[in-house]
Every structure is written in structure tokens, then in C-alpha cells.
Design brief:
Elements: H1 2-19, E1 22-24, E2 35-37, E3 48-49, H2 51-55, E4 67-70, E5 75-79, E6 84-87, E7 109-110, E8 113-114, E9 118-119, E10 124-129, E11 139-144, E12 153-160, E13 163-173, E14 178-184, E15 187-190, E16 199-208, E17 212-222, E18 230-241
Parallel strand pairs: 1-2, 3-4
Antiparallel strand pairs: 4-5, 5-6, 7-8, 9-12, 10-11, 11-18, 12-17, 13-16, 13-18, 14-15, 14-17
Length: 242
């Protein structure tokens, strides 16, 4: 009898590995799937980690294809063998569009890459800084190193409903050879390049006549005609509906 039980157990285990399919919520898993989950009331929950916890997985010895949900960036991420990459997710636009400007204090970085902002890397280099800060624990250090002004943008796209908005940010100039111009659906105010070694606030307002997706961000100018590289710092970007 004992021998029969052992043989039965062996047969079940052997059959499982031969078929290599598991169904949860279904008795007939799809033949193309190793694991088939089926439910009309529940979802699949992947491991949820902060960026710090993610970077400590297996002491950095990470399998290619590993997937997590990042609690800091609020995004699914996949490891490609060298770096973590976001799995692009399109946010559902409801009747009340999001008014949120993401990562306005430049606190969130994926290793050394700034989250939520699009960087035109040919013209500027963006690094995190924890010394010269206006709010929070980090700021964005911008280094201009190009002769082409149209490749010096830092932007993000957001969905806004119609209305009047005020946008503001702080900039810290190290010298008088650079300045920043605010962009909110169109070009707005400049920073004052004569104010150095202290934070200055730049504000502007704009009005949207319809609910729409727009770009928010900055263009950087080297007033020394790019004879040498120039550095400045950004922090505490805010967008408020008036």
C-alpha cells in the first residue's frame, strides 16, 4: 500500500512537470501558458518595492526579465539585464482629469535617471544633488553643454482641464552665464541671470480654454554663447489651479 502511494505521488509530480501548466481559477489552463490565472473579481498582484528595496534585490545579482511594482514611481518596472526600465502604462483619463505635476521637487530618481521628466540629453546633463536644495532632500543639477538651444529642454506632459493656472519654480544660478525660461503650453518668463548664489522664484500664469494635454517644463540658455559649460539648479516646481 505504501509503495502504491509513493508511485501515485511520483506520477502526479511527473505529470505536472511534463505538462508544466498550472491553472488558478480555471480547470483548463491555456496550453501556451505556464501559469493561467482566471478571475472576474480579483487581479494579479506583483511584488511592491521602493526604489531602495529594488536596488537591494539579491545584492544586485538580478535575473533578466524580473518584474516589480515601484512604490516610489508608481510604475511597473522590468530588469533588462543591465538596468531597470519602466513598463509604460497609459493612465485612464476620467471625467475629472489629473492636475498633478509629477516629481516637481525632483525627489524621485531611478538610480541616476530623473523620473517623470523627459530630458533632451544632447544639450543638457541632469544629475541629482543633495547639497543645494530648496525643498525636500534633492534638487536637479543642470549642466549645459551644447551649442544648440533647441536641445536644452526638460519637460513632461500632463492632462489639465480648462481654467487658469499658476506655475512656479525655484532656480539657483552659480554664475551669470545661464538662465531658464519656463514653458507651460507656450514659452513664459525667464529667470534673472544676474541673481547668483541664492534661490530665486519664477512665476507665470496661463489659461486653457479646453481640457487638453499640454507640456510643462523648461528651456535653458547659456548667455555666454556656449563658450564654456554652465551649471544651475532647479527645485520645487508647483502647478496650482486658480
Amino acid at each position: 500500500m505504501k509503495k502504491l502511494q509513493i508511485l501515485t505521488t511520483f506520477y502526479v509530480v511527473f505529470s505536472f512537470y511534463m505538462n508544466a501548466q498550472v491553472g488558478i481559477g480555471t480547470t483548463s489552463p491555456d496550453t501556451s501558458a505556464l501559469l493561467d490565472l482566471n478571475s472576474s473579481s480579483k487581479g494579479f498582484l506583483v511584488p511592491r518595492l521602493t526604489s531602495v528595496e529594488r536596488d537591494q534585490i539579491n545584492y544586485g545579482n538580478i535575473a533578466e526579465g524580473l518584474i516589480i511594482y515601484n512604490l516610489d514611481s508608481k510604475m511597473l518596472e522590468i530588469f533588462d539585464g543591465n538596468d531597470w526600465n519602466r513598463i509604460v502604462m497609459e493612465k485612464l483619463i476620467t471625467e475629472k482629469p489629473s492636475k498633478e505635476l509629477l516629481n516637481g521637487d525632483f525627489e524621485n530618481w531611478m538610480r541616476d535617471k530623473l523620473d517623470d521628466w523627459t530630458i533632451i540629453e544632447e544639450g543638457i546633463k541632469v544629475e541629482k544633488d543633495s547639497v543645494i536644495i530648496k525643498a525636500g532632500k534633492k534638487s536637479a543639477k543642470i549642466q549645459l553643454n551644447t551649442t544648440q538651444q533647441d536641445t536644452t529642454d526638460l519637460r513632461q506632459r500632463i492632462q489639465l482641464e480648462k481654467g487658469t493656472y499658476e506655475i512656479s519654480f525655484y532656480v539657483f544660478h552659480l554664475d551669470k552665464t545661464s538662465r531658464v525660461r519656463l514653458y507651460a503650453d507656450s514659452f513664459k518668463n525667464y529667470s534673472d541671470s544676474s541673481i547668483i548664489n541664492e534661490w530665486q522664484e519664477v512665476r507665470s500664469t496661463f489659461t486653457l480654454n479646453n481640457t487638453q494635454e499640454i507640456e510643462i517644463g523648461f528651456r535653458f540658455y547659456d548667455t555666454d554663447e556656449f563658450i564654456d559649460s554652465s551649471r544651475l539648479y532647479l527645485d520645487h516646481v508647483q502647478l496650482i489651479k486658480k
